[in-house]
Amino acid sequence: MTEVPAAESAADSEFSDPGAEPTRRVSKRWIAFIALANLGLYLGYFGPLEVLLPNQVQAIAGPGHKVAVLGWVTGIGAAVAMISNPVAGALSDRTTSRFGRRHPWTVCGALAGAAALVLLAGQQTIAGLIIGWCLAQAGLNAMQASVTAGVPDHVPVAQRGAVSGWIGLPQTVGVVLAVALVTVAVTGNAGYVLIAGLVVLCVLPFALTTPDPPLPRASRPPFEWRAFARSFWLSPRQHPDFAWAWLTRFAVNLGNAMAILYLLYFLRDRVHYSRLFPGQKAEDGLLILILIYMAAVVVTAVTGGMISDRSGHRKLPVTVAGLVMAVPAVMLALWPTWPVAIAAAAIMGLGFGVYLSVDQALVTQVLPSAAGRAKDLGIINIANSGPQVLAPAIAAPLVSQLGGYPTLYLSVAAITVLGSAFVWKIRSVP
Questions:
Q1: What is the DSSP letter of 314?
Q2: Which superfamily is assigned to 28-210+232-425 in CATH?
Q3: In this predicted model, what pLDDT tens digit does every residue of 330-375 receive, in sequence order?
Q4: Where are the domains of the chain?
Q5: Banded pLDDT at 1 (limits 50, 70, 90)
Q6: Which of 235, 236, 361, 405 lies 20 to 30 Å (CA to CA) from residue 247?
Q7: CB atoms within 10 A of CB 370
Q8: In angstroms, how far is the first alpha carbon of the chain from the final one?
Q9: CA pair distance 267, 260, nearest whole angstrom
Q10: How far is Cα 199 from Cα 389, in angstroms, rounded to an integer?
Q11: Percent of the chain, pLDDT > 90?
């Protein structure tokens, strides 16, 4: 991590004016704690999405209906995320608690998400899964909205690429750790309880030990429902760079969501992992791929962000990263073998590492206003959760009716390339 001048104290690195543009570089301690909070968040997301929900769905719905039912469960949950993230962000922008604007939402969101994960452990019906996952998405997205706002709240523009790299790494580490925890450390639905506890433990150091300047009551505008609802519409004509940044992220995440949603089933039904390696399960192969992917992300995430900070350029790295991520999708479509899957995981990680840090830094530079950072980032985060709604609707018929996994992964490649091209429409960021 980048060194901070010795004269800068932990308090100095935070800002007394919550609406001011940050100028002081944040400390390594602050970066470590927000990264840990993000790790808890992504454990909460990926433990269920990668292993627990697919296995639970298959056990309840049976092999013949698992693809469609998993699409419904994850899609409805993502629809809840699309609403809860920007709403929680907007409410945190207006929060005048003496504990700050963001931290109360971070802690309450983590507790609510953890409680919902525990609830999921006992579900034995599809309706129960949908309700439990929707509640988990609502809590975790409230947490995400407040944590994500920490970057534009506290990190100066010249440091955002590197910081985004560090706090983006938990997204990848969270996948690996979550899969390992729910396949090796514990088995079955007990994984939900373990993940729930870790969500809370990971967020507490950041929420309890880092400052979060409160919003003065005099700075909070009067609340009016119509004005509050209208604030979620940001005109593409008035804010074109924000709109193009949103589209870029939406397209790339749509491709990513389509690829990941059925990855476990792809290993099980197309690669036939258990036949290749008798005595092992497809979950074991998934863990291997994720470990390779994580190692590649670690190589490029922070370095890509730091290089982008030094050069001042964001668009070219995002474009190159998107093109690189399209390559493994083509590989899986044309050569669905285990060695190719290993190579694809490595290439995907190299591209996603750069994308993870640089695109996040770019997004923070096109936010329409400082007063509504969390709300605006919540709208950006719809480009993360929205694809989770749309992906099942697109991917399920591709897999079951329109050519199977080759069609799916070629579509993923095309969508990802399209997303990488949108970034060049942004004018205010080089």
A1: -
A2: MFS general substrate transporter like domains (1.20.1250.20)
A3: 999 999 999 999 999 999 999 988 998 899 899 999 999 878 889 9
A4: 28-210+232-425
A5: very low
A6: 405
A7: 16
A8: 24
A9: 11
A10: 24
A11: 63
